[in-house]
Amino acid sequence: MxxxxxxxxxxxxxxxxVCGVMASSKTAEARPNLEVNDNAVGMLYDSTLCVGCxxxxxxxxxxxxxxxxxxxxxxxxxxxxxxxxxxxxxIKVYKNGTAKTKDAETDGFAFEKRSCMHCVDPGCVSACxxxxxxxxxxxxxxxxxxxxxxxxxxxxxxxxxxVPQFEYDKTFGQIHKCQMCNQKGVERIDKGQMTGCAEACxxxxxxxxxxxxxxxxxKRRTALKPGxxxxxxxxxxxxxxxxxxxxxxxxxxxxxxxxxxxGTNVMHISSISFDKxxxxxLEERSYASMSEGVQHTLYSYLALPAVAxxxxxxVVKRNIDSDGEGGDS
Amino acid sequence: MAEQExxxxxxxxSEVEKRLGVTRRTFLKYCAGVAASLGLxxxxxxxxxxxxxxxxxxxxxxxxxxxxxxxxxxxxxxxSEQPSLEHLLLDMISLDYHQTLDTxxxxxxxxxxxxxxxxxxxxxxxVVEGAIPVKDDGVYCKIAGETMLHITKEAAEGAAAIVAFGxxxxxxxxxxxxxxxxxxxxxxxxxxxxPVVNIPGCPPNPANFLGTVLYFVTFGKLPPLDQQNRPKxxxxxLIHENCYRRPHFDAxxxxxxxxxxxxxxxxxxxxxxCKGPETYNNCPSLEFNNVGGGVWPIGVGHPxxxxxxxxxxxxxxxxxxxxxxxxxxxxxxxxxxxxxxxTGISPTAAAxxxxxxxxxxxxxxxxxxxxGNTPESDSGSDG
Lengths: 329, 383
What we know:
heterodimer; A: 329 residues; alpha+beta; Alpha-Beta Plaits; 3-stranded mixed beta sheet; 12 strands; elongated; B: 383 residues; Rossmann fold; 5-stranded parallel beta sheet; two-stranded antiparallel ribbon; 15 helices; 9% strand
């Protein structure tokens, strides 16, 4: 084959695939957010109810058999600053000025829980090249399979909440993230139990239930008049182990996770705005749906590999030609 | 400290031994104990002992009023197990009027009270026990034909110091709970402008009262007070931060109902409505009535009721969850921005790792060089 002919052919193939890509990309871009599973289990974290006892943090470590994070020389207590290979759940504090008043933006403080939000349309699952991260069909829980994981850590960059964490200190490190106590060997949800953190929470700040129930509860709370007495359930919303009465705080009319990036099964409500609590600015469209649109289009009908093959073939051919034919080219 | 002999500078305690019917040793031990619980030094204990022993004629007269109450403060004071407490109390102060303890009754006693108040004008200590109803001109509590409101105001006129003993006298107590039909108020509320020392509790710890009174007798002034006029030495600390069940709270181990496994194991009582996280008192260290053996509500497995805290005891439902007022380590929190630093590799390990990697790279380079060289040298030798 003459160089000229080869080039012609290669260009022609590329143009055809690019056209094909262009033509099919319209339909691919329209991949909508994954649909909300009403029966999915989730949790509602009410920042105003949290007293910062960290019982949930301790219980989480107990259930997951994880060691405390010790930073100082006084090896006395867990000092986890954020999620890590040893911490799946952590209570953080927002502080401003004198930090005297709870749940106030100015001169106040507020607690915030950091753990997996269990997205309806999760970026980590979409990004995982080996399906080590999966959505459990029945419960909506995002689980992790260490046997499948190749340690590429793409899930870490795909998560807007900085949730999946890698064990950098181990030779064969794994990803660690909250699996709502339903991972192999624990299976609390399958056994009809609730998550460890919701069970340990003494105020009902972490409430367990189905996404539908929890969203209703969150909507009820944010619609209440501040100062009225509300009977807050604790534990599992479908069968609360107890209730406690408390005056309603001044909730922000925002349920984090109702719509953010396609919604999450773990939702948060609070009296101060979520950007103060470190939540990322997210739109309703999920990242997964967008990136999958682009990625799946590029790879549809093996278009991109075909283009790459054509390009590579050209380079190789040229090199061989230049070697064999001397100064011909 | 109590076992150590105090240096009293050769002070003669024989008089006080005779007067109080206690040995010098017991007496000094008691004074040292009170001084210690007040957070005072050994020299203060000696000063206290001398103040009590030296001037029996200087005993401050005390007028003790009872309003709307159950006499709990007096009862708890009488049952106090401090060594020879009642001797000390009765010989330390001149209790001129006390409705429960007076042997006399009727007009005679009322006359004596008026007489004492007149003679000791500006010198006597006024102790108020019980709330004071103010609705309908205070008709809901009358003693000897006069309202408690009037009696309190009258007695406060010539008082050197006023002590509100018990929660009722301090801020209204159970009587002031909603709907408060009699308009019950605390002593300070009906005596605006007068300094009132509050010793709240239901019943209050007698040690908190005696310590404050002994401080007054010894130094001639009141101990440092907090914003609610409570002696700081007794009410300066949150129960939650000195509670021996606190580690269970931090570890998330709670009793969820009375008699359950967690309750039997002595877990934290927060879920049962313990008000320790919002109540200031010294119960965790002094316990109650010096009975010892862990005898105080949390010690015997009942959540703190918040009896000494205004707006908590008798106001919040008994099993309602408390607000957690403050956080001390280990309960400190990372900020929102905090990130976990990778502490997995120590500098030494990193250096060793680097050295190993360097060695490996060097070795492979050398090997590659050799591999590259060998055929040439081989062909060289062949040819």
